[in-house]
Design the sequence.
DNA sequence: ATCCCTATTGGCCTCACGGGCGATATCTTG
DNA sequence: CAAGATATCGCCCGTGAGGCCAATAGGGAT
């Protein structure tokens, strides 16, 4: 199993190397510090699985993910994240990730995930899957594309009029989108919406 | 040098162990997964240096830091963070951390920091120190305690009247604080203030 | 082909927000 | 002691924000 590790923290890369070092069948063929480097690497060095961190400077893991699967459909991607926020997980899985494990997971869990994915399956860590299934929880992370656009611009401090101009729609429409964002996130003000958006990884 | 590692991500703990494993003089005597566990550990197991992650569930690193220094003045603390945001760094140093290194730093940098701190000095990683000295940059992260209170409540979606009641002050005063928050963060709306606050680690 | 749901678009109305400007008491710091 | 930062409160005022209601287009379900 040829593996490539992509994470901007060298401490994490070393940890992964260490965790997987005694597994004969796992061969770490390369490491990347960000998404751009990873894509360059993949141009010359094929891999079976990419262990991909979500947060990286420049081209993030979530940015690189669709690009990888598009260019190299044979390559599986396992997301390695710190966050168990449903929004992150949903986005990653909808973008085509084959696995999702947390950085707090131990050696055995990680290896189980890699093996399952190598076999062609998918693996989502227990705690994460539980969060995902949570029925009572507000289904944060399910904003429409347009609503997401609006939320991003709101987080930049734009007022409705500016958002309207930026998106080429009327201010009234922006307000409707915002109202619907409020409903879905269960908030009552744009400040809170931005807070929830950032905390759950919906934006930025 | 007796070292304790506190980080909620086992991948990171393994990475650190690995990085430091061939240094004879460094002895990793224990590991903790959060601040509470760390404080328990210290009750029975003394250490020279604690390598402390800022973000941990429950009792965070920044919560535990003053407590550690208070109870065990001999123990030095080196912060191990993902963030080079000046706000984080300032807070950590003002709370009495003896060192500050990033998770993206390599083996040599980490060891240099530990040695310097063990000698009784302080060590702040180059890139971090540079950010800190940045004169032109708005000095984000220097809100007064009261302003911070207000910002936190704003991020919860409270409107001025509610914040006023929560803090037991008048609405006019809340507005004054907010205005001053805007000035310092260089923003023009509460939504943007919350965004900046979260992104720079001032709140949450 | 019809019905339903969602996404997207829009107008009207009221109140909270934010700008401007000023004021007082405390506490640190030079 | 003077100077500056912190925390407190006030009034005015214009506009942006959020609540209420409505319409159109497209994708699925039966």
Sequence:
């Amino acid at each position: 199993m040829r593996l490539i590790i992509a994470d901007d923290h060298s401490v994490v890369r070393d940890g992964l190397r260490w965790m997987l070092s005694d597994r004969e069948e796992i061969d770490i063929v390369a490491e990347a510090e960000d998404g751009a480097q990873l894509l360059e690497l993949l141009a010359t060095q094929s891999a079976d699985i990419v262990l991909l961190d979500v947060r990286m400077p420049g081209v993030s893991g979530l940015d690189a993910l669709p690009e990888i699967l598009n260019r190299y459909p044979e390559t599986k991607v396992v997301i390695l994240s710190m966050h168990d926020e449903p929004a992150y997980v949903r986005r990653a899985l909808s973008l085509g990730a084959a696995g999702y494990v947390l950085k707090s997971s131990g050696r055995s869990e990680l290896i189980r995930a890699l093996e399952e994915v190598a076999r062609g399956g998918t693996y989502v860590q227990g705690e994460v899957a539980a969060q995902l299934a949570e029925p009572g929880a507000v289904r944060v992370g399910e904003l429409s594309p347009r609503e997401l656009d609006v939320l991003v611009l709101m987080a930049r401090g734009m007022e409705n009029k500016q958002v309207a101009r930026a998106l080429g729609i009327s201010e009234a429409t922006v307000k409707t989108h915002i109202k619907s964002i409020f409903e879905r996130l269960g908030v009552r003000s744009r400040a809170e919406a931005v807070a929830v958006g950032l905390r759950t990884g919906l934006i930025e």
Notes: Chain B touches chain A through 39 residues (CB under 8 Å). Residues 71 and 184 of chain B are 35 Å apart (CA to CA).
